[in-house]
Amino acid sequence: MKYISVAVDGPAGAGKSTISKNVAAQLGFVYIDTGAMYRAAALYAINNGIDIKKEADILIDRLDDIKIEMKNIDGSHHVYLCGEDVSEIIRREDVSAGASSVAVIPEVREKLVAMQKKMAERDNVIMDGRDICSHVLPNAQVKIFLTASSEERARRRYKELLEKGVECDFETIKSDMEVRDKNDSSRAVSPLRVAEDATVVDTTGLDFEQSVRKIRELVENVL
Prior knowledge:
The chain is an alpha/beta fold.
């Protein structure tokens, strides 16, 4: 059986996860959040007292011990690390910071990319991340680069944090977003790029439902 793979790339805050997750649920595809996998690897390091920046060699030696699974349970996406549901824990700020450090270790990326490729061999998937179109799923039937202006992405993040009761400053969020964009695009390992055969979808000015509809239409064209 030939499974359908949908690869979604794009900068931080573009809505890749929420949109991809929603489209996957509508079409009955498995949603794979690759960013969550790097967060899980970072959490493994934190839980085991490994300083990611200073002791990368220790983490590399233990890569085979890192078991990550993704499951859709009653319409909700769950991430498991070594059998434990860590869906909420991996959203902590220290884990987020650790994930950025983990993501630049070539051996870790190689390990997680191998996991991601195997996942795509077993199901119809929608997978999002930073280098899915060009590196992880280069033969995906649908390739999408989902983006929005830094102003728009910062506005969405600002609104999200306020709704959670978190005090924040819009200009700081926007500045951090732009720094992250620069880092993601200029890093030596798997930099953020628009794949030549990817369709660019700019969601600036679109609401969530409109964005979901655009992505779903691109997927339905190959079904």
